[in-house]
Design a protein that fits this description.
mainly alpha; 13 helices; hpI Integrase, Chain A; 4% strand
Length: 342
């Protein structure tokens, strides 16, 4: 357990009984009814525990005693201790979500956080590769041996089902690691899926006839994303010559496998992307950087913003609109560099 998690649990246990019960019921609502990820539940619960702890310090003993003054005081305190604008925005959202739920369930007589405003989070423009850089990165796995990547500091390699060992590749046979890496890179850039979504794919999620992949995204939302001919070739090679070489009885239906036969985990996938980028002398890039690049290149190629929203699995169009800013900035840079009147 991390230090932050231990602190949250200790603070939770120190709350008055009615407040502890409200926290537990809210967490159950997020996980079971709203189907939020474990990461989101932890973040919102941590924010709520912090809010209620602040309320106790202001003299409250039950959730029903919360009011807008307490909420604003809590956010002001967070800002005083140096919380970033993004953190303040998330904490305000957590407070509004809790307040709305508490009002619906009778814990609060009114939705006290409804008028609560939050600072607009500053959004940095994501790192985006040029189209030629992205192509070079994706094709790197098919042209050279897999680069040596630093070990996971936790000591983990892959989510392994047993004591399988890395495959031994006979001379002249294709390297299954490079075949796997090529599929990973093709999917990350060719479809724009999140790294967790790519690692969560099963073999049955690939529709070879229509060249689409079925993706289970955030909130359990499912979507179908098309992929191109290069990705299809990479998938075919992997399924024919790569995956059988590393699969073990415990591999299950996972599409992408680690060298010991377990489902490839996102941490390993991030090291794979970083390793190839470093070997090519490219800017430091992550799987999410490839997702950013895919979205930007789609928009620059004339794709409709709502189509890109659907491909990326964004629930809000506002999340997709940041890529229009990226394209504008790239246009500005090209203008400044090339136009004589810039």
């Amino acid at each position: 357990m991390t230090g932050g998690a231990r602190t949250t649990r200790a603070t939770h246990e120190a709350l008055p009984p009615a407040m502890r019960e409200a926290v537990d019921d809210f967490a159950d609502h997020l996980a079971r009814v709203r189907n939020r990820s474990a990461h989101t539940v932890r973040a919102y619960v941590g924010d709520l525990v912090s809010l209620l702890d602040h309320a106790v310090r202001m003299g409250c003993s039950e959730p029903s005693e919360l009011d807008l003054t307490v909420l604003r005081s809590w956010l002001a305190r967070q800002r005083t201790v140096g919380a970033a604008r993004t953190s303040l925005a998330r904490r305000a959202a957590a407070a509004r979500t809790f307040s709305a739920w508490a009002h619906r369930t009778g814990v609060l007589s009114t939705d006290v956080a409804a008028p609560l405003s939050s600072p607009r989070a500053h959004r940095d423009l994501p790192t985006v590769l040029r189209a030629d850089q992205a192509a070079a990165l994706v094709e790197a796995a098919g042209q050279s041996p897999a680069p040596v990547r630093p070990a996971d500091p936790t000591g983990s390699t892959d989510d392994t089902p047993g004591d399988a060992v890395p495959p031994t590749v006979p001379p002249g046979d294709p390297d299954p690691v490079r075949l796997r890496d090529r599929v990973l890179l093709e999917l990350l850039y060719g479809t724009g899926v999140r790294v967790s979504e790519a690692c969560g794919l099963d073999v049955a999620d690939i529709d070879h006839g229509r060249r689409v992949v079925r993706v289970l995204g955030k909130g359990g939302r499912e979507r179908s994303v098309p992929y191109g001919v290069p990705a299809q070739r990479a998938i075919d090679d992997w399924l024919r010559s790569g995956r059988p070489a590393v699969a073990v009885p415990g591999s299950g239906d996972a599409l992408l496998l680690g060298t010991r036969g377990g489902r490839l985990n996102p941490t390993t996938a991030r090291r794979i992307v970083a390793g190839y980028a470093e070997s090519l002398g490219l800017p430091r890039v992550s799987p999410h950087g490839l997702r950013h690049s895919a979205a930007t290149h789609l928009l620059e190629g004339g794709a409709d913003l709502r189509a890109v929203q659907e491909l990326l699995g964004h629930s809000s169009l506002g999340s997709t609109q940041i890529y229009t800013h990226v394209s504008v900035e790239r246009l500005r840079a090209a203008y400044r560099q090339a136009h004589p009147r810039a």
